[in-house]
């Protein structure tokens, strides 16, 4: 969830400082930028990418699929779609750590193009992740609060269609952001450089302001309100469910189904809580700051806070793997089986390679024995055929 100016902040060192700005705030900004964008951000993006790859492998695994019922499978499809969006965010955000801090390039190459358009690309996946979380909350709200109606409303095909629609809508809404920045060519002392500079959308300030307002409503306000309403009801229903389980003696099958519902709902609630803790502050800061001052390129106090909140936002897209490990026993078992199987395969390969290296004659003997066994099986098959059908 982001406004149309989301990007990993890169500010010109040559900009003149405001009179009220102290040298200390600029030094702090430089140090925070170096540590968080130089070391923290690439580490988080790398861990997040591989964590989301593991999420995809395990969520598509047979163990997880078999343990789910109809409504849970719809939630699982949404979790897979959310994982794809988070993985794409980590993948597209990682190159930003290699951008020059002053956003000045010697060539109009790939990195300059990326610096110009990365804000739009990253925004697409942020909005996608936000609205996928909203759709998951909506499904869980219907499944938990209206279980009788949910069977007619929630289906795998409808969930897939909604997820695809969210991706398409996110791309369409963020198309204008591709014109938010431009590459300016500057020539000084016979040296040509290329600068990434912000610009007013389509040279129309009214359109620019209206678009920002629409983005704030669709990408921030509406999702926040829906998430608060749906998840407040979900927490209330889970509390009632635990109270009823203490008072009533239910069948083991019913308890198992209820525990599956609660587990998936708790996973979603954890994702939403992390969203409000790690993502919402960044978006709130940017919208409030733009209302008071549209030119923040030289406000180093704001830029320092923005660096911290952007890193927090990145953690949100990298931490779902930890949530699944903590709250989902089936996910943990699947992950354990995956690593155990990989370890067993690696050990078997190492043992075979070591045996061949220490005693190559055994490998030749095994190969010759395999060929002899194959020949003897063919010969026996031929003799049996002759006995039955006569010689050809």
Automatic annotation (TrEMBL):
<protein>
    <recommendedName>
        <fullName>G-protein coupled receptors family 1 profile domain-containing protein</fullName>
    </recommendedName>
</protein>
<dbReference type="Pfam" id="PF00001">
    <property type="entry name" value="7tm_1"/>
</dbReference>
<keyword id="KW-0812">Transmembrane</keyword>
<feature type="transmembrane region" description="Helical">
    <location>
        <begin position="213"/>
        <end position="235"/>
    </location>
</feature>
<keyword id="KW-1133">Transmembrane helix</keyword>
<feature type="transmembrane region" description="Helical">
    <location>
        <begin position="79"/>
        <end position="99"/>
    </location>
</feature>
<dbReference type="InterPro" id="IPR017452">
    <property type="entry name" value="GPCR_Rhodpsn_7TM"/>
</dbReference>
<feature type="domain" description="G-protein coupled receptors family 1 profile">
    <location>
        <begin position="51"/>
        <end position="324"/>
    </location>
</feature>
<dbReference type="InterPro" id="IPR052954">
    <property type="entry name" value="GPCR-Ligand_Int"/>
</dbReference>
<dbReference type="InterPro" id="IPR000276">
    <property type="entry name" value="GPCR_Rhodpsn"/>
</dbReference>
<dbReference type="GO" id="GO:0004930">
    <property type="term" value="F:G protein-coupled receptor activity"/>
</dbReference>
<feature type="transmembrane region" description="Helical">
    <location>
        <begin position="300"/>
        <end position="327"/>
    </location>
</feature>
<feature type="transmembrane region" description="Helical">
    <location>
        <begin position="161"/>
        <end position="179"/>
    </location>
</feature>
<feature type="transmembrane region" description="Helical">
    <location>
        <begin position="36"/>
        <end position="58"/>
    </location>
</feature>
<feature type="transmembrane region" description="Helical">
    <location>
        <begin position="260"/>
        <end position="280"/>
    </location>
</feature>
<dbReference type="GO" id="GO:0016020">
    <property type="term" value="C:membrane"/>
</dbReference>
<feature type="transmembrane region" description="Helical">
    <location>
        <begin position="111"/>
        <end position="134"/>
    </location>
</feature>
<keyword id="KW-0472">Membrane</keyword>
């Amino acid at each position: 969830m982001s406004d149309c100016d989301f990007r990993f902040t890169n500010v010109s060192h040559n900009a003149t400082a405001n009179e009220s700005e102290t040298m200390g705030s600029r030094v702090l900004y430089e140090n925070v930028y170096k540590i968080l964008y130089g070391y923290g951000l690439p580490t988080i993006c790398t861990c997040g990418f591989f964590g989301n790859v593991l999420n995809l492998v395990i969520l598509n695994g047979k163990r997880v699929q078999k343990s789910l019922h109809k409504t849970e499978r719809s939630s699982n499809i949404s979790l897979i779609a959310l994982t794809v969006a988070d993985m794409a965010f980590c993948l597209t955000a990682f190159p930003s750590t290699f951008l020059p801090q002053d956003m000045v390039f010697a060539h109009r190459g790939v990195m300059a193009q990326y610096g110009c358009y990365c804000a739009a690309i990253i925004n697409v996946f942020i909005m996608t992740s936000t609205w996928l979380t909203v759709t998951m909350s909506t499904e869980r709200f219907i499944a938990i609060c209206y279980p009788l109606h949910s069977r007619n409303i929630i289906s795998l095909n409808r969930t897939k269609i909604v997820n695809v629609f969210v991706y398409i809508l996110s791309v369409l809404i963020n198309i204008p952001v591709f014109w938010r920045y431009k590459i300016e060519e500057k020539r000084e002392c016979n040296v040509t450089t290329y600068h990434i500079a912000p610009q007013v959308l389509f040279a129309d300030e009214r359109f620019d302001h209206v678009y920002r307002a629409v983005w704030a409503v669709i990408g921030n306000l509406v999702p926040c309100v829906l998430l608060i309403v749906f998840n407040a009801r979900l927490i209330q229903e889970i509390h009632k469910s635990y109270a009823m389980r203490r008072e009533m003696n239910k069948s083991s099958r019913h308890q198992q189904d209820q525990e599956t519902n609660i587990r998936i709902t708790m996973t979603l609630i954890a994702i939403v809580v992390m969203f409000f803790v790690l993502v919402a502050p960044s978006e709130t800061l940017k919208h409030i700051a733009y209302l008071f001052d549209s030119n923040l390129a030289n406000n180093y106090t704001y830029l320092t806070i923005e660096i911290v909140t952007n890193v927090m936002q990145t953690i949100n897209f990298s931490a779902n793997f930890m949530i699944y490990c903590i709250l989902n026993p089936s996910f943990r078992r699947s992950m354990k089986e995956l690593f155990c199987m990989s370890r067993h395969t690696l050990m078997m390969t190492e043992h075979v390679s070591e045996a061949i290296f220490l005693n190559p004659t055994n490998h030749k003997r095994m190969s010759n024995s395999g060929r002899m066994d194959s020949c003897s099986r063919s010969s026996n098959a031929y003799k049996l055929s002759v006995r039955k059908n006569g010689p050809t």
